[in-house]
Amino acid sequence: MADIKGKMPITLESAIKIKQSLLGNDEMKLKYFGDGTFFLEILKTLHDSDDAMLLRECSIILYAYINFSDAWKRDLPDLTKAANTMIQNCKKCPDTLLEITILSISKMLSSQVIPFLTIDDLIDTLQCTITNESSSERLTANCCIILISELAQMDADPKRNDLAISLISRLYRPIMQRLGDLIAPIFIRVLKQNATLSSLKEFDSIFEHASLSNELPVLLYKASSTSVPNSTLALTSLLNAMAQFLSVLGRHHHIVSIPDTLTYTLYGLLRSSSFELKQAAAAVIVYYSSYHLSNKHLITANFQKVIPVLMSIARNDLLSREQKEDFRSSMARKNFEYNGPGRLSSLHLLVECCEHYPATVDKLVGLDFVDLLMLAVDKLTRDFIQDEDDAHHLSDCLLLISCICATDDVKRELVSQYPINWKKYIGSYVQLCRNILNRNDITVSFELLSSFRLATETVLSFCYVIRSMSRSAAVLRTSFELKDVVINMFEILKQPFVMDFLSTIDDPVLSNNEVLLRSVILGAISNFAIGFSIIREYMDSNSVQSALQPYINGTYRSINSQDRTVLLVSALQVIRNALYSDDAKFREPFVTKASLESVFKLCEHKDDRVKQQSFNILRNVSAISIAQAEKLNDIYMDSVPHELSHDTDFLAFLHRHLDSTEDFDTLTAICYIFVNFASSTLDNQRKIMADEQLLKRLHELLQISLPSNSAKAETIKLWNLKLSIVWIITNLTWRQGTAGSSSDDDNDSSMDIDNTSSATVTPSGPCSTAKERAQKLIKFGFYDTIQVLSRNCDIADFRERARTAVFQLVYHDE
């Protein structure tokens, strides 16, 4: 070994021996790369040699260490020079060196140890390779997918992420050109087989009418046909690469288009006899329709075409796995389905369909498809999975089940009838985390880390299902056999992030999955915390509060500010729902002075999602009782946020945020706090009425209008805001016996409001009577505005509340 490690020049034979000794052997990697002279000898060989095969072996050796440990960031200072050398070698021998060079350079880029400028020559080389007809389509596609996979992981740094997407987009046009060369003869054949005339005019007509039908064009194309010289494998490879481009660019809001000729040919390829080819075509259609198309009719038609094809492929896959007669090899699945950031398996593509075309779920629930999914889950969860293909397959099955459960209680009840070994699988994951955290991070083996990656992915999918199931009131009112699962969920929340512990490893996907897992767990627990949930009996509120604190305080160092915000929002959601309860003992830890002061601080957060959840917590606190609403004011007046802001009282604090906020959800949360204070005491009613700037702001918000082409969700948010303001007016003018109760009970927070304000208190001072308040509100224009809104709104709840408010105003003005 000593001769190999630098005392003699590295030869092809010795390089092969070194490579073979390194693969899968972490101990040997440490021995070799602990010697600085060995690295220098590798660099020297890469610089001096003209032997393409020797350069390839040395590049593989270098990549083995780069991919093994992040220690190379510190130990190998001359990586930019090494990267430039590898790129220059690649330009001389692209067919031999391109793939391994891209693997190495992409890893260096994603780990931020070399500048982006380094990759310009490599991108140029890859562009030339893509457009070179003599180069292998499989090599071209694999290189593109490798580059996309690494560069797409740079979400943590917006500047680097923008550069990464820019680099990826530079390859889009060349790959489209190469694909166009393959597609052209197939398009002509498909068009001739489906049109009485082959004119372009008729093609346009066929394409336009395709949006009205889910029928697929006939395809008589066979890959072995001598008249069509392109192999199925070549076409499949490029289509898979194209799907990856569409997935990554679309998720980063970089919109591209593909020509109608390609789209129409893809319709034809959906009838191909090759499962891989039709699945690749389906992947392109799914990701293009999900992220890049804006024509709703065409999007719907595309999904209608592709869903039956994907269900057929998925059903065959599920059956063949069950019968152990797989119609595709495990290696083929790994190559075609899991090699890249955008999953291309039929099951995962159906998940994408569910997310972007909700009608997909109804198509899935029928025949024996759910039976097959649940059978696969049962079989795969009997033991803790170690096989990568099985782990991905289980994850896809669970994600699709979670989509089915996400829609309505009928489908949740259907899934709940099947046995799932939640306890064993999630419990095994907790133990695996402990095994890693109890070690020195240097001693965590590659195999153990690989197991943790796979386990995190599958447990994340399990928790997606649990969260979807927890949205059902029927499920929450039963034990759902989740006692031990809930306990293990809290164990996961309490444990440090494994990526905090593994300081020498850089794995953006694993880091992201750890964050997602905890966010999904927090989402499920927020549902379990609701008052009518029997599962809440397994939860001690003090323990819940303790488990939430690290996420509220943002104490984990391995995650970026964006992920910390995601976890913070999820933790606040738990507190919000914990307050949705009549159980004063369970609420107690969340309404202490310390807890509420931290909420006041978070109301000043720059992120609208954090502010929204914080004000919703205060909304639920103010709804508990009049005494609790008054306590809010007392605690605020004695808090640090009050000292920093100099607000005169809690209502002034609310007014300040009402003026500075534009987000409809946050405004609605603030207004519902005013709803509760407006129905509490006469003193609070007088304070609200005395603040004329507040009344003007509320009236302004009532008059907001949106453009006619605004998204439906945004329109609904605005009407919810206006409804909350109408309730404020109703409560300010309320007189017992004039109508039904006008409290916040039937909205999404727990209310216990005393509506007997001015009717039972001896009037004293300005705006002390409901009549005086009504007259002032009419002068501010509320009567006329609410009347107009009521006539122009087709939302029944708003119209009913508006009629009540108008009646109160008129009643007291007479």
TrEMBL record:
Keywords: Cytoplasm, Nucleus, Repeat. GO terms for biological process: proteasome-mediated ubiquitin-dependent protein catabolic process. GO terms for cellular component: cytoplasm; GID complex; nucleus. InterPro entries: ARM-like (IPR011989), ARM-type_fold (IPR016024), ARMC8/Vid28 (IPR038739). The keyword Repeat applies. It comes from the Eukaryota. Its main location: cytoplasm. It is found in: Cytoplasm; Nucleus. The keyword Nucleus applies. This is DEBR0S5_05732g1_1. Residues 737-768 are annotated as: Disordered.
